[in-house]
Amino acid sequence: MKNPAMRAPKSAASYGKSPLLNVKLPPGRAWLVKGLLFAAFAALGLRAFWVQVWTTQFYQNQGDLRFVRTIELPAMRGRILDRNGNILASSIPAKTIWADPTQVESGNDKVQQLARLLGLNAADLQRRLDSNKQFVYLKRQVDIDVAKEVKALGIKGIYESPSYKRYYPEGSAAAQLIGFSNIEGQGQDGMELALQARLAGHPGVRKVVKDRLGNVIEDVSGGVPPVDGQDVRLSIDSKIQYLTYQALKQSVEDNKAKNGSAVVIDAKTGEILAMANYPSFDPNSRKRMTEADIRNYAVTDAFEPGSVLKPITLSAALQAGIITPTTVFHTAPGCQQFYGANICDDSNNGNIELPQVIQYSSNVATSQVVSKMPAQVQWNMYTAVGFGQRPQIEFPGATSGLMRPMKRWRPIDRITMGFGYGLGISTLQLAHAYLIFADRGRIFPVTLFKHDEAPEGVQVVSPAVAREMRGMLALVTQPGGTAPAAAVPGYSTGGKTGTAWIAKDGKYDKKLFRAQFVGLAPIHHPVLVMAVSVDQPTGGKHFGGQVSAPVFGAVVPQALRILGVQPDLPVKPDLVPAQTAQALQLPAGRAMKGGA
Amino acid sequence: MTRINFLLLFVVVLCAMSVVRAQYQGRRMFAALDVAQQRAEQLQMDKDRLQVEYRAMSAPGRIERIARTQLDMRPITAARTIFVHEGQATLPPLPVMPQSPPKPASQGARR
């Protein structure tokens, strides 16, 4: 019997002649191949599932990384405006000029030109361009026009990118009040710092797909729109601010004083219309700025006020019924002992009534009033007008002043506090306190923001007392008072001078003074309250009436005109047409001088 | 049957091409929109900058300096101001001017 396996090739001869094809393979092998092929396909399927379904996010992110570009969208810092919408601080577009030193190849003359344009030292610039870094700042916050010129130089490897620069149109006039922000757009001082959160805004990002030319062709989700900072409107009037600054500067320079500060407050609302300090700095170029220049003395520095405090003390006594406007005080011979201290006036005023106490600024009579007054009455008045409390304004570093608690007052402390020694207040607090004489005896919180409607106010003295005090304060600026320099043509004024010694090494240096004046105008229906304080005048004059009252006298008539207040005193008209008519008969050149 | 298939194939190809075209158009228009938006931003920034420049030109300090030095002007006083009230029917009479002033002098005074 023949082997069947041997026979098979014969029957399969029709499939081909190759003997290999005729080899009978074990069936398991075919299954193995089929199984491997199936497994390979299954692996592919699984891989596809893994890529397309399971880890799709990862691959999409990787794809985005290669196509999607993220564009930073900077937020515009809000503007600071005055009460009439004039810009006090605003951001303007600028350019940052930077270089990739590895790409820079340029001749010496181009570098010289670049250095000149950017205001840099040429050798220093060359050294920076020779470094082997890939990024160096050349100059930040470059003006757009300068940046255009830099671009026109066409130096390879010099780039620009957009940025902002803060600009302050008022310059040094409101420098301490507005403050300034740094190169990164962070408020550093003044309102720029106090209002940082409102002014700053939030930068955003935008995600886009760009084509090979760099054009944006598609927005991709995931971007965040930028939120610009808010504009802030202050209560400041930029014209009054400027007038105040100029007048204060003049006084500080003329009297060779250390510094000075002035505050103008709207008498009906408590809004601060102007707050000026000198010395000052230009916030637009702060290279030569010193610590002393930045200080907003009007708010941050407390000083012993001296005689300007007398009307506050006396109005407390008037309100409490301890004295009346016709009470007579015996001040002869000009000095009197109180609790072991000798209190003196500048001269022997004899027997005087209350109005003269204010007009001549009598320490002796004021001390007599305080010695009759309960401590509680004095304390209540000082706290009601805000002494020893931080003013409710959003200003960094506003001082609360210095006032000891009542239970630590010695009798002599009460006497000296009555005429302004032994407690400390700021120029702002001083102006604020005088609001009680302005509007029917009420006081309002001071504010740096514009009110939409007049605040309620708190009654401190009765309207009658406020009126009587105004009548007395009016005497001060009249001939015979201590501040005739605060009288202005057309408007009635009133106020009080103060010339305080400055304490040094535990005692008063009787050669160092602080000259003060605080006044109201028009005195019978006050529209504004102004306080001026000049520290250490050394130019020969040192009285408040000589140093500070002229600042009041220079600012008030202009400020009242700006506010549209009609003169309440008769004035002799001095109108231009009358002069023009006269001038017309003169040669044209001279008519200029004689005319407006 | 075959004819319908060819027709459908043609329709599919047509649709596919119009999708490509629409996408291309869309991207182009988006790019144009983006350019326009950037321009709007640029103009807004220019406006802000010009407002600030305008303000810098009209700052009280600059006005006063020019008024005093170049124009020989002096500050207003109450004595040289006529106050006009809101709602006042007639203006106060103006001071009488001299009749027909000689021309060169009036121009000189105005400058």
What does this structure look like?
The complex is a heterodimer of chains A (596) and B (111). With 596 residues, chain A is of the alpha+beta class. Chain A folds into three domains: 31-69; 74-233, Penicillin-binding protein 2a (Domain 2), CATH 3.90.1310; 238-283 and 296-562, 3-Layer(aba) Sandwich (Beta-lactamase). Chain A contains 23 helices and 21 strands. In chain A, strands 2, 3, 4, 5 and 10 form a five-stranded mixed beta sheet that branches. The longest helix of chain A is centred in the N-terminal third of the chain and has 28 residues, at 27-54. Chain A is elongated. Mean pLDDT of chain A is 87; it is low at 1-13, 578-584 and 586-596. Chain B has 111 residues and is mainly α. Chain B is built from three helices and no strands. Chain B has helices spanning 2-57, 60-69, 103-110. The longest helix of chain B has 56 residues, at 2-57. Chain B starts with a helix and ends with a helix. Mean pLDDT of chain B is 80; it is low at 100-111.
Succession of helices and strands of chain B: HHH
What name goes with the CATH superfamily of the largest domain in chain A? DD-peptidase/beta-lactamase superfamily
Dominant shape of chain B: rod-shaped
Number of helices of chain A: 23
> What is the averaged pLDDT score of chain B?
80
Number of alpha- plus pi-helical segments of chain B: 3
State the end-to-end CA separation of chain B: 96 Å
Strand residue content of chain A = 15-25%
Total number of distinct structural domains of chain A: 3
Q: What structural class results from the helix and strand content of chain A?
A: alpha+beta
Give structural attributes.
heterodimer, A: 596 residues, Penicillin-binding protein 2a (Domain 2), Beta-lactamase, 5-stranded mixed beta sheet, 5-stranded antiparallel beta sheet, 21% strand, elongated, B: 111 residues, mainly alpha, 0% strand
